[in-house]
Amino acid sequence: MAGPDAAITEMLNAWRSGDAAAQPRLADALYAELRGMALRRLAGSGQGGIDPTELVHEAYLRLCEGAGDWRNRAHFYALAALHMRNVLVDDARERATAKRGGGAAFVTLRAGERQPADAQVDLLRVDEALHVLAAEDPRTARLLEMTYFGGMDRAEIAFVESVSVPTVDRGLRYGRARLKTLLEE
Predict the structure, then answer these.
(1) Side-chain half-sphere of 15: how many Cα atoms within 13 Å?
(2) What is the pTM of this model?
(3) Cα Rg for the chain, rounded, in angstroms?
């Protein structure tokens, strides 16, 4: 194992093992990638309630409170995607229930793409649809989550899920179609 990915995995393992000195070094090493994930997720979304820095900080705090069950760098980013999703959904719920109408957050259905406002889907509806999909097919729901909320590429997702890239592609095609059907219901 060599390179920056290996170093991050080593720091994650040290932090998980209780090395308090590893956490600040790890935060420095991960911040740019986590911020990039947040920027990709919020790009063109019209999201007014939370900015990328807030999203990264809140997701990172939730990661720090967790049990540290990551296996490696890619798995850590998958968990970060889950926490970013939860932060965005919590923020959307809070704004939607605000006295003056709030307004729901929006997310595009294609990772890394900017789409016009009419091609965007209400984040709360996406979250509900992902919960339904997770009950039917947990792995497909995780694939979509890592793509949409984590901005992870197919190879990273394949590594985290221990499957081939074509398997991820098939899962994403099915997941997008199923998610579209759930959102149209």
Answers:
(1) 24
(2) 0.69
(3) 17
